[in-house]
Amino acid sequence: MTRGDQRERDRQRAQARRPAAKGRDDGLTPEQRRERDAKALQEKAARKAAQAAGGACAKGGKNTGKK
């Protein structure tokens, strides 16, 4: 046991480096969280559908017409 309090200091340093737990500190109820997540998914799907409908040629960029 020659390390003394080195282990304790290492634990403290490791804990300080760990990111703070984000978890459920947003103050929302589960129902509110579900609504927020559903809205975000709907917006994401709408953006993806708009991109697919409007930018079919611009997606890959491989069809340049050169041979």
Automatic annotation (TrEMBL):
Domain of life: Eukaryota
Record field: compositional bias (Low complexity): 48-61
All copies of domain Small EDRK-rich factor-like N-terminal, residue ranges: 1-34
Pfam families to which the protein is assigned, alphabetical: SERF-like_N
InterPro entries (UniProt xref): SERF-like_N, SERF1/2-like
Sequence segments annotated as region (Disordered): 1-67
Stretches with biased composition (Basic and acidic residues): 1-13, 22-46
Family: Belongs to the SERF family.
Cited PANTHER family: SI:CH211-39K3.2-RELATED, SMALL EDRK-RICH FACTOR 1
Protein name in UniProt: Small EDRK-rich factor-like N-terminal domain-containing protein
Species of origin: Zea mays (Maize)
Encoding gene per record: LOC100275405
